[in-house]
Amino acid sequence: MKADIVVIGAGAAGLMAAAAAAELGAEVVIVEKNDRAGVKLRITGKGRCNVCNNCSEAEVMKNITRNGKFMFSALKGFSPADVMEFFERLGVPLKTERGNRVFPVSDRAADIAEALDKYCASLGAKRIKGRVTGIKTLDGAVCGVHTSAGEIGCRRVILATGGMSYPKTGSNGEGYALAGAMGHSIVEPEASLVPLVSPDAFCAAMQGLSLRNVRLTLTGSVSGRLFEDFGEMQFTHFGVTGPLILSASAHMGRKSGEEYRISLDLKPALDEKALDARILRDFSGQANKDFANALGGLAPRLLIPVLIERSGIDPHSKVNSVTREQRQTLLRLFKNFTVRISGKRPVDEAVITSGGVATGEIKPSTMESRVMPGLYFAGEVIDVDAYTGGFNLQIAWSTAYAAGKSAAESLW
Asked: pLDDT confidence of 253, banded at 50, 70, 90?
């Protein structure tokens, strides 16, 4: 079999790259090991698919946590507005929700995957089932791929195999080996946007407790303050999770020996003086109660025993006997509730993979390899990642569009 361009992987990036190339008249073959296209895409956003974020390219850049500058050209070439216009042109109406997150009106991620798959087919792109085992070269440039379904000759290859998150969908990191065999450097892949593990026993004691409207600060023993934001999180049997935690995980670096902790301001709307007045007000109406029974208006039920234990205040002492120093200790807990972090949960629990093909070895305007002519990259296989909110899919769409368009244009 022969083609102009072989796209390895029929996920979000692979399908978009194939579409962009086929639109320009290139003969495209997509090699996908799963029975159907867009397996991971179909489960993103809890099955709803957060297609992109309805914001400017500059705002997308602010939400990219690794190698954001690399994305400048690709975002200019295929912006969030372009993504929205593209899918609505394919017959998938979209809506914008809280945080400018864009979803299909149907709330069905499958609508996005199927629209892309059908569009590629309508342009003449062929999809075959198989696993790519190697990329062929001739005279220092790509000339084909070896697959479990046979050899395919081609003039360009677009590698869009994804990372290592959601391995059951086929994202098992094999694209890194293919890129490495072509001479590319691979930044060690690790989990990002992932729950965090804590050695603190009180996390398990508060399992299921969700905290809303808290301020979280992530600190590293070597790097200092790494991340700060306001939102919600949850305690689990292994540590902590939730939107704030996933975002914080993206800032846990690769420095050996670094120790992390998060600090929670449980009452961010109140400064220390206002919070002290609030505690005094609550206590004044419960002067003869046990301390353990006087915190219901200040903290959720599962948090109260932990606050009592960490404050060192006798739970059976009467409220009117709590000293000013003890009250200040309680106040500091509300404003700086610390949780030690020992690491991340496994990569198969992560939303995305951090790491991948080094961006310095890829031309940012075309996504072509600087190492191997005719080889292009798209999506999560590249060492670029972002916060939740549609930004990682935007990276996939933009890099894929650049790769597909550039690969096709280079043929003539």
From this structure: confident
pLDDT digits (tens, 9 = 90+) for 255-264: 778 999 999 9
**Which residue in 179, 230, 239 sits closest to 207, CA to CA?**
239
79 to 76, 105, 139, 156, 402: CA distances (angstroms): 6, 20, 36, 25, 11
Strands (DSSP E) contained in 106-247 are 126-129, 132-138, 141-147, 150-153, 156-159, 186-192, 196-197, 210-220, 224-235, 239-241
How far apart are the C-alpha atoms of 355 and 325, rounded to whole Å? 48
- The residues facing 141 across adjacent strands are 138
* Helices and strands in the chain: count of H runs, count of E runs: 12, 22
- The string of pLDDT tens digits covering residues 267-302 is 999 999 999 999 999 999 898 999 999 999 999 999
Look-up of token digits 């709803």: 48
Which residue from 150, 120, 117 is spatially nearest to 27, judged by alpha carbons? 120
Rounded distance, CA 127 to CA 120, Å? 9
Closest CA to 261 of 191, 200, 331: 200
- Residue 211 to residue 231: CA distance in whole angstroms: 8
Please report the pLDDT score of residue 172 as a whole number. 83
Per DSSP, the residues of 243-290 read: HHHHHHHTT----TT--EEEEEES-TTS-HHHHHHHHHHHHHTTTTSB
What phi and psi, each to the nearest 5 degrees, are found at residue 347?
-65, -25
The strand ranges marked E within 67-192 are 94-97, 101-104, 126-129, 132-138, 141-147, 150-153, 156-159, 186-192
Three-state secondary structure of 352-394: EEEEEECHHHECCCCCEECCCCCEEECHHHECCEECCCCHHHH
Neighbours of 28 (CB within 10 A): 30
Query: Rounded to 5 degrees, what are φ and ψ at 89?
Result: -65, -30
- Which residues partner with 352 through β-bridges? 192
For residue 264 the two structure tokens come to 């929670």
Are 166 and 352 contacting, i.e. CB atoms less than 8 angstroms apart? no
Task: Provide the token pair at 411.
Answer: 């043929």
Task: Confirm if 346 and 192 have CB atoms less than 8 A apart.
Answer: no
- φ/ψ of 44, rounded to 5, equals -65, 155
Pair 169, 47: CB distance under 8 Å? no
